[in-house]
TrEMBL record:
Intracellular or extracellular location(s): Nucleus
GO CC annotation: nuclear chromosome
Keyword Ribosomal protein appears in the UniProt entry: no
Protein name per its UniProtKB record: Chromatin structure-remodeling complex protein BSH isoform X3
Main localization (coarse): nucleus
Domain of life: Eukaryota
Family indicated by similarity: Belongs to the SNF5 family.
Sorted UniProt keywords: Nucleus, Transcription, Transcription regulation
InterPro entries: SNF5 (IPR006939)
UniProt-listed Pfam families: SNF5
One GO biological process term: chromatin remodeling
Lineage start: Eukaryota, Viridiplantae, Streptophyta, Embryophyta, Tracheophyta
């Protein structure tokens, strides 16, 4: 039986991007001595960190980039993975939300501008499969377009997931604040006031 929207919104889930595979969208834009390297792809956060260095070395070798790029590529990937992992295990709230995904990107000679709806509660969704279907329907043959579209979708879903974590955190802090306020006995508040008067007297000062 499908849960109601209110049940979804009140029940916290552990952080993850609402897709079948919980992959990290990685975007690189590195410039060294006038030479620039740009790329975008996904990464499995469960892979060992040693794979980052292997990937950086292979990329520099395959593209014949200066050796200095290896360190920068590895550091950029590692930084983005660290940020993603910092959200893992944290609570997030999801409701029955259908959100618009907007695409506006150029890949080689292909310009993609599109907008469509995405179900945030569908954890079986597959941006890569969706992108392949989109390219097929539009007659796009460039093999680099599909992966670029998938990364763009995942970036937007990742951003929304981070916002949901922030919302859950704010809700939790708000509830703690209300509980703290409601459980402070009036007598204790008055007692604290008397103690302050004893310590500091009746004088008061205002700093402007």
């Amino acid at each position: 039986m499908k849960a109601s929207a209110s049940a979804h919104s009140k029940t916290p889930f552990k952080f993850r991007i609402p897709t079948a595979e919980n992959l990290v969208p990685i975007r690189l834009d590195i410039e060294i001595d006038g030479q620039r390297f740009k790329d975008a792809f996904t990464w499995n956060p469960s892979d060992p960190d040693s794979e980052v260095v292997v990937f950086a070395k292979r990329t520099v070798k395959d593209l014949k980039l200066p050796p200095a790029f290896m360190t920068q590529i590895a550091q950029s990937i590692q930084s983005q993975l660290t940020e993603f992992r910092s959200f893992e295990g944290q609570d997030m709230y999801t409701g029955e939300k259908i959100i618009p995904i907007k695409l506006d990107l150029r890949v080689n000679n292909t310009l993609i501008k599109d907008q469509f709806l995405w179900d945030l509660n569908n954890y079986e969704s597959d941006p890569e499969e969706f992108s392949r279907t989109l390219c097929k329907d539009l007659g796009i043959e460039d093999p680099e377009v599909g992966p670029a579209v998938a990364v763009a979708i995942r970036e937007q879903l990742y951003e929304i997931a981070m916002q949901n974590v922030a919302s859950a955190r704010e809700s939790r802090m708000s509830k703690k604040g209300r509980r703290g306020f409601e459980h402070v006995p009036a007598s204790k508040v008055g007692g604290a006031s008397v103690d302050l008067v004893k310590l500091f007297g009746q004088r008061s000062s205002v700093v402007r």
